[in-house]
Amino acid sequence: MISPRENNQTEITEFILLGIEGPQAVKIFLYFVFLILYIMTLCGNLVIIGLILESQHLRSPLYFFLSNLALSDILLSTSVVPTLLCALLKGRVTMTITGCVVQFLASGLPSSAECNLLTVMSYDRYLAVCNPLHYNRIMNNNLCTNLISCSWLVSFLFCLTDIIEILHMEFCRSNVIDYVYCDVAPLLEISCKNSSILQLTILVFSIPGILLLFVLIILSYVNISIAVLRIPSNIGRQKAFSTCSSHLTVVCVYFGILIAKYTVPSKGRSLTMNKAITLLYTALTPLINPVIYSLRNRDIRAAANKLISVRK
C-alpha cells in the first residue's frame, strides 16, 4: 500500500515480497522441495533436542549447547521458509513494514546466536581436550548458563541496532522486494533516505560478528590439534578427533556460507546468486547440522538406538 505525501512523493506502508520468480511449474517443484527440506529440518532438530532431554548420557555441557544450536536452526528456518512457500504458491506475499521488521528480527536473532553458539562449543571442546583435568570445574552449570544467555542477548542487541536504523529509513522508490525474505540489503535498495549509517553499522558489526568469531574457532582447533597430536596412542588420538569432527564440519559449512553472504560485496554478484546463497543459508544449513551430528556423533547414535529399542 502506498499513501500520498505533501512533497508529491509516496510513502510506502506495505511491501510486496516476490521470493523466487520463474515458470509456475518450476515454482511448484521448488515449493515441494523446500517443503520437504523444512519438514526434515524440523524433525531432525526436534529429534536432537528430544534425545538430549531424554537421555542421561547426553547431559554434558556439549549437548546442552547443541540443543540450543538445534533451537536456533528451527527458528532460522521457520522465520524464512514458510513465507517463501507462500510466495511460491501465490507469486508474491504482501507484508507490512512491521511484519518485515519482525521477520528480520526472527531471522537475524537465531543467525547471530548460531555464530555465538558455535564459538562457545569450540571453547568447550578446547577445554575438554586441552584441559581435561579441570574441565568439570571450569565448565560448570553456572558458566554454561551464562554462556548461553550471553549468546542470545548479544545476538538480540546486534539485531536491535539494525532494527533501530531500519525504522528510521524512508521507503518511497518502490514497495517491491525482489528477494527471498526481508533482509537489510533489499531494504537498502528501495530506501529513499541516505542509508550510509546503516551500511557502516552492518560493516562494523559483521566483521567482528563473523570473521572474528571464525578466527577464534580456528585458533581453538589449532590448539586442539596440537594437544591431540601429543597423545601417544592412536586410539586416544582418534577418540579426541571424533569428539570434535562433527562440530568442525558444521563450523566450516555454516561460516563458509555466512561469510559469502555478509562479507562479500553483494553488488558484485547477480541477484540469482544472492538468492541461492540465502537459500543455502536459511533452508539447507539448518538441516545439515542435525544430519552431521546424527551421522558422526556416537553418543547421539547410541541414544537414538537405545530410545528405539525401549519403544519397541
Automatic annotation (TrEMBL):
Pfam short name (any one): 7tm_4
Membrane topology summary: Multi-pass membrane protein
InterPro entries documented for this protein: GPCR_Rhodpsn, GPCR_Rhodpsn_7TM, Olfact_rcpt, Olfactory_GPCR1
Keywords: Cell membrane, Disulfide bond, G-protein coupled receptor, Glycoprotein, Membrane, Olfaction, Receptor, Sensory transduction, Transducer, Transmembrane, Transmembrane helix
A single cellular component GO annotation: plasma membrane
Ranges that cross the membrane: 28-53, 65-89, 143-164, 197-219, 240-264, 276-295
Subcellular localization(s) per the UniProt record: Cell membrane
Record PROSITE patterns: G_PROTEIN_RECEP_F1_1, G_PROTEIN_RECEP_F1_2
A GO term, aspect molecular function: G protein-coupled receptor activity
Sequence ranges assigned to domain G-protein coupled receptors family 1 profile in this UniProt record: 44-293
Official protein name in the record: Olfactory receptor
Organism: Hymenochirus boettgeri
